[in-house]
Amino acid sequence: MSTEKTGLKAAYSLQTPNDSRALYARWAEDYDTDFAAGQAYALPAATARAFVAAGGGGPVLDVGAGTGLCGVALAEAGAGPVDAVDISPEMLAVAGQKGVYRTLLEADLYAGVTVADGAYGGIVSSGTFTHGHVGPEVLDEVLRLAAPGAVLALAINAAHFQAGGFAAAFDRLAPRIEGLALPEVRIYGDDAAGAHKDDMAKIAVFRKR
Q: Could you tell me which residues are beta bridge partners of residue 140?
């Protein structure tokens, strides 16, 4: 598969929701083998661990679920039930095959998710808040979906945290959240290669007031 059509370079060059739909339609079938396994993609499991360690419980919404790697890690940790939301129907189709999700929701976070306020006791996100993908503007929508007291664990590319406006967004949201912690983790494992092999993420772990 051509890295000009898929891969991190293409992913980090996204500019619009339609760009995302087009890329992940092409990439869905091979994402787990071409990217996740090939780059020892460790972030989904790290996000699930952070969520569970903070006392997170269900029902859980996996925001930007992709092919379901974080959902699998949550299921292995005994967290659930878990719903998936993603902009790409092709990625959701692959996620659905893993048998770990209660419901699959196709939605653009910028346009909103057709789910009631406070529907979820926990929310996770891994790989969505990064270069070319989703910005801090959607954090209000994510919080809307969380019940009071819900635990959230949102992985954010560390290089994107300041430049992408996430630091300022969390300052703005401070009256609505509590216990914010920002542990840093490696996005990829020891077997990763390439320009991004040492990239880090901050996992924003907090509760909704």
A: none
- The encoded tokens of residue 172 equal 């703005």
> Is residue 39 domain-resident?
yes
Q: Would you say residue 2 lies in a domain?
A: no
Q: How far, in Å, are 5, 8, 11, 13, 17 from residue 22 at the CA level?
A: 10, 14, 11, 12, 9
What tens digit of pLDDT does each residue of 89-131 get? 999 999 999 999 999 999 999 999 999 999 999 999 998 997 6
Q: Which of 64, 59, 58, 102 is nearest to 85 (CA)?
A: 64
Residue type, 166: F
Do the domain assignments include residue 3?
Answer: no
CA pair distance 42, 20, nearest whole angstrom: 22
Q: In which domain, by residue range, is 64 found?
A: 8-208
**Residue type at position 118:** G
Residue 121 lies in a domain: yes
